[in-house]
Each structure stands twice: as structure tokens, then as C-alpha cells.
User: Fold this.
Amino acid sequence: MVDPTDQRGPLPGDLGEVPTVFACFLCYGALFFDRLAPLYLIAFVTDDLPVREGGDGILALSIGVGWAASMALAHWSSGRWSNRQRVLVATAGAATFGLASLFAPAWTAFCALRGLGGLFAGTAAPPITALTFAASPSRRRGLDLGIVQASTRMFGSLAAPVVVTTVAVWQGWTAALATSTAFVALGAVVLATLVPTRPRPARPAAARDGALTYRPAGRRNVALCAVVSAALVAWLITTSQSAVPLVEQWLGVGPSAAGRVVGWFGVGAAGAALIVPIASDWVGRHQSLSVATLVGAAGGLTMVYAAANGMWASGAVASVLMAVAGVAMGGLPLVISIIPAEAVATGEVGRALVLPIVAAELVGGAAVPALAAAAVPAVGLPVAVGGTALGLVLAAVLGMAMTTAGEGVAAA
Assistant:
């Protein structure tokens, strides 16, 4: 999600493409698995760590603030450590605070520890992207980055709800989160093994701090990307924290079965995260973004309407609607990476990505899910979730307002 030229790391050709992309895919996916796992387990955790009604939204708020603040830490570490070192520090910090959260004496302490884990985990995004770019031939950089980005949905939205709810039912939530932490450790070991250590010197300060200029309409595109990224991440996090109890109420099933249904959100999200960026090279960035978000909005709104009215109470129907709702996530790589990068004329591309990422984390990952959780006692789960689905409609409209070339070479 950043320009690789502003990071210490291997030069193109220093890394094996396949092992590096695989290592980044696994490591980034593990971090998102760990990020979303506690949200799927809120009902289990609050059985042991009581929380006042509506207070469960503090968890998403803490994690979102941690990931947003991680951008400052990532900026500080850029140029001081190699990309490989930065990823390993990120995973070590996330795993350490993840383990500590298993022994939290109260809900607020649990949320604080998960937030501190997010402060470290979020710093992995820039160096993982830089490693992927450095290892990839230019003709396959879009594909390789799409594969790595898809891991966040494949592991975070597809595998995590199924795995952690199943483990929690049988062994408890601490075992489920320990499994999540072990996955992060595995990702770190694979990356440390497959990615060699050959740092290049940090760029001179003058090169890192040069003036940033935008293409025509580029600044507007970045601002629109910030709003759209907030809407998309709000949908992702609110669904992650609320979909399991929503499906339980709708279908009358237990948490393990509900987790398997919610996993289909990850099927749609993972597929779209890979397909939509590739399609945008052919049909245009904003067209692809708007179509994906509208499809996701249609699936999400249909799902919450059916749940609110007790309609189509079938696991098959719920799974299909979850998958369609996940398609909206295909637009996320566009608004937090590709479109902002193409908006830059001169200067560090990474600086153009700060606003969309911070908006995504602070507003979409923290504030909106917390408000949605607080609203549940008053309006009910379907309405709280449906409100964030309406945000996808706004995202589609704003997507069409962007001016992009769509060939991956410029943003007008």
C-alpha cells in the first residue's frame, strides 16, 4: 500500500518472486486473522469478562485506533530498519500483546491489550507491500499485490470466523485466540525463512522528504478515497463483530454454525479483492469500485432485511447473501492503494496513502463499529448492521465522482 522506493529493502531481482509473495501472503493474512478473531468471539469473551450493554463496541474502537496510530510508528521505522525487520517486529509485537490479552482481568484491559497489538500489527502493511513490489516483475506487480491483499479477506473474513468460533465452542475463547496468535508466529517464521536479509541503504532525507504534488484532480481523488475507505472498513468491521449473533438470531443456530455461514462473507471478499483490481485495469478504477460496492450493498441490505423480518431462514440463503455482501471488499485495494498512488505526480507515493488509511482505521475501523454496537440495544442488530450497509451506497456514488485513467498508469 506504499511506494516501495521509500522503504529500505531488497532491490528488484534480489528476492525470489514466488517465495516472497507466498511469505507476504501468509504473514499479512495471519495478521488480519488475528485482528478480526476477537471480534468474532465477543459473545464468548464477555461471558467471562462482563461488559455493560452496548460496551462491546470498545473492542473494535481500540483495535481501530491502534491500527490507525501504527501509521506514525511505521513512518518512524521507515529508513531505519529493513522491511524484513519491520515485519518481524510487527508480528512479534502483535503476538506478545495477543498472548497478554488472554490473561486480561477485565474487559477494558482486554480491549486495551488488543489495541496495543494493533499498534504493532498495522506497521507491517507498508513493508509487506514494499517486499512484494521489490520481488515482482513490473508486469505482474498488480497481480502479486492483489494476491497479498486477498489474503486479508481469505484469512480474516473467510477462515477466522469458522476456525475461532469452532475452537471456542470446544475449548473456550482463550484457546481460540491462542490459535490466532500461533498463526501470527507461523507467518513470521515463514517470512523470516523465505525472505533473505539484504537491506539497501536508506534513501537520503532530501529524497524522502521531497515535495508531494498531485496530478489534476488527484487531491480530490485522495479525499474521496478516504471517505470510501472509511465506509468499506466500517462495513467489514461491523459485519465481523455483529454477523455471528445476527445469524444466530436469524437462523436459530449456535455460534459454530453461525461462524461457518459468516465465513462465506470471506469467500466473496477474498474473490473480489483479487478480481476487482485486475478488472479495474480493463474497465476503469471508479467503474469497478462502484459496481463492487453496489453489489455488496445489495447483498448486505437484503441480508439484514431478511434477518429483521425472519425471512428465508436457510443456511444456504444466508451463506449466499453473506458472499454477495463480501464483494464490496473488492474495492478496498483500489481506495487504500491503487487510486491514491496514481494520483501522485511527484514525491513519495506513500504519503498520499496516509489519509485513506487513517480514515479507514479511525472512522471505519473504530468509530462507526463502536457506534453501531452502542446502538444495538435501542434499534436492534439488523438496523445497526444495515446502517453501515447503506454506507456502501454512498461509497458507490463517490466512486463514480472520481476521475481516473483506469490503465494503471495515471489518475487524472
Notes: The chain has two domains: 1-209, 212-412. The radius of gyration is 20 Å.
